[in-house]
């Protein structure tokens, strides 16, 4: 600070003159890209949602008012089914990821032999894409080549277990596949915050006779509170938006039981090219996520203490 | 704030003496791990540290869950078709030859490399400029922009397919890999900006100011002081960008419809469509898709935790 003051006294014009346009120039590429490819598209989604717009049937296209919304709210069981699956998917996936991610972070935060290698290994699925995850789990779940067949060989389960084809088990099959890739990221976020926990607190608590469980409840959890809230909400949004895994693993099936709302949009866009209707679905998705965003901003008090 | 509360409530005097360095890990160490290890040995005492089996048992179980799927893929990629052995022996590379030459993975691979590297550069350069501005200049509109960055985290990529498709069609970029680079860059930018501005904020302003006093221009000071200290952060951000671009599936599926422009995930999804025919090819394609990103990840995972604590979580 002292250096800054001295410098400002010597050359008072340097900082204000330079500071005026430089930040805008530096930030301009980011702002322009985001306006062109995020803000404008969002506005055009709102506009498309009021249209009948199908690239394969241009003769039908035109302004439709709220017709798309009326259809999806009152005449489209797939919309309600996909919304229901989305909610169930997010709740189950995120709460399991939180529990396993927290546990994993606590374990790899300890000092033990092979910690670096263990971290690299358990976190590695994070780098793996949805399609690749699908490839791996298709092999693992397949009734003739998968793990259930080998388990049956040693007397566990039966030979014809086809978890992805069964409407009852498919939910848990996709949940486990996504956990495989989702838990590491959760663990990384929590581990990052764990490392800023003051060791003195733990020492003091030990001196005071607090056991490990008490220290977890009274020091670790309060310290992690903000990180847990933030990562949980972020994961909730990301899992809500997660499409590639479901798109390729189940295609939304069997019988549409694993179709989430974004997956339904993607199907409308890529398969039937109903851009207007898909945009209306998107708009509904935005409104739901807006609720999440407000909750997130409230809880994180973002930007308030910068 | 909860930390401070605990400081006041329960601490013995001896601990208060050592308390001022509230966040020891904030000091930049070469790996960030040396510091952690040093601290931990300090609080390790008999009866308090978890017993060995309490670490290794759950960790072992989780490792099993992590590694068995990888191993399964590797076995299928390396063993001959028709074999049911769980050890890939005798090893064959016929599946790799099939996917690389017959299924076109050599093209997909280089397309993916190109998209990944281009996205890496555009994202890193643009986010470096913007992140530095966010960290160092108190300009008007800064907080609104930060808020906007955060809000972008809630925009579903899948839901942007339709308007982005229209934009790229207007720009004539459908079937061009540039459409993927642009879309990937835009979606990577917010997190990259947040991370880089966090990294820059961790570099003491005094260092730059000292350089100015010595006669450096702002840009010279940036190049001489900030850039070298930012290198680990830039590696992390660049790797995120590369991994993101390498893995992106829906944009590539939607914007690129000619086989010579497919990227690895799209190629893999078509191999997946025929998985009932050839599991070996599917697994070998998976290995080709996984190798670069897992290798990069193994190198950067040390920076990863530190990068997250500098930028994202503290947001």
TrEMBL record, chain A:
Short name of any one Pfam family annotated for the protein: BPD_transp_1
Signal peptide span: none
Membrane topology: Multi-pass membrane protein
CDD domains: TM_PBP2 (cd06261)
Domain annotation ABC transmembrane type-1: ranges: 83-296
Keywords: Cell membrane, Membrane, Sugar transport, Transmembrane, Transmembrane helix, Transport
Compartment list: Cell membrane
Coiled coil spans: none
Entry's Gene Ontology BP terms: transmembrane transport
Transmembrane segments: 21-43, 89-108, 120-140, 170-192, 245-265, 277-297
UniProt keyword Ubl conjugation present: no
GO terms for cellular component: plasma membrane
Keyword rRNA processing: no
Similarity remark: Belongs to the binding-protein-dependent transport system permease family.
UniProt-recorded name of the protein: Multiple sugar transport system permease protein
Organism for this UniProt entry: Allostreptomyces psammosilenae
TrEMBL record, chain B:
Membrane topology note: Multi-pass membrane protein
Family annotation (SUPFAM superfamilies): MetI-like
Record flagged with keyword Ribonucleoprotein: no
Domain (ABC transmembrane type-1): residue spans on this chain: 109-300
Annotated region (Disordered), positions in chain: 1-47
Keyword Disulfide bond: no
GO cellular component: plasma membrane
Transmembrane segment boundaries: 53-78, 108-132, 144-165, 177-200, 221-246, 279-300
Keywords for this protein: Cell membrane, Membrane, Sugar transport, Transmembrane, Transmembrane helix, Transport
Cellular compartment(s): Cell membrane
Family, as annotated: Belongs to the binding-protein-dependent transport system permease family.
Name the record gives this protein: Multiple sugar transport system permease protein
Annotated organism of origin: Allostreptomyces psammosilenae
